[in-house]
Amino acid sequence: MKSIAILIAAIAVLACSVSTASVQELQERNSAEIRERIRSAANVFVDAVVERLRKYALEHSLEPLAVPDLTRKFTVTIFGAEAEGFLYLTNGWLRDLITLLRSGEADVEFVGDLVHISTDLVFERLHLDYDFRVSVFGLQPSGELLGRAEGLRIAVVLNADLTTFRTTLSRFTVVGAKNIAVEAVGGGLPSDLLNTLIDLVKPYIQDDILSFIEEKMKSTLEDALVDFDISEIIDL
Fold first, then answer.
1. Buried b (16+ CB within 10 A) or exposed e, 115-129
2. How many whole angstroms separate alpha carbon 207 and alpha carbon 72?
3. Which residues pair with 152 in a beta bridge?
4. Disulfide-capable partner of 133 in 44, 142, 222, 231 (CB 3.0 to 4.6 Å)?
5. Fold designation for 41-232
């Protein structure tokens, strides 16, 4: 009887071991399948995030987007005479933020239950318009200042949590633009003063405005992702 009991116990232990191994194997297989589904759907996931950002921007009146006023002091020489002046930019608006698209393939990295999805986004075109006024030589010509940026590239990293199905943003960085152009319309400005005006504004667009876009769009995307559920996009 004792030997039979030992045999039964051994069989039970063996069955338990086989069962545990089967469960572990199943879990590993399911995990591998989920990872493969995420890899294959990474581009679809990013596109869904971008679409959500576009809709959020429209719903919250961020298209067009108001931009800060600017005052700049400058020095100009006209007809051999040097003078200090001021440039005032007001009523600025940034348009076409909804032209944001994914650029290239998304990269996927798994760290525990977190999925890091890296990609580049690009604004196909952005338009900036300001009212300008120049104060120099006792004159105050005014008009409209137009700026255009093409191919503005953003580096983005999204973190998807497989336990909560929530997505957060860990990187949103402006990399640069293919082309930035500035044009002043109206005001009857002499060419020397017009060139000075454009030279003043272009660095502002390249630095301050691009930083403003980065900060504003980053916070907007963070807000848009608050209730974004990854399982609605990828079958988990």
1. bebbbbbbbeebebb
2. 14
3. 123
4. 142
5. Bactericidal permeability-increasing protein; domain 1 (3.15.10)
Q: Do residues 131 and 144 make contact, with C-beta atoms less than 8 angstroms apart?
A: yes
Cα 102 to Cα 43: distance, rounded to the nearest angstrom = 8
Q: Domain locations in the chain?
A: 41-232
pLDDT digits (tens, 9 = 90+) for 28-70: 445 678 788 888 889 999 999 999 999 999 999 999 999 999 8
Contact (CB, 8 A) for 117 and 46: yes
Global pTM reads 0.78
Burial class (CB in 10 A: 0-12, 13-18, 19+), 211: exposed
In a 13 Å sphere around the CA of 188, the CA atoms on its Cβ side amount to 3
Tokens 């990609």 — which residue?
A: 119
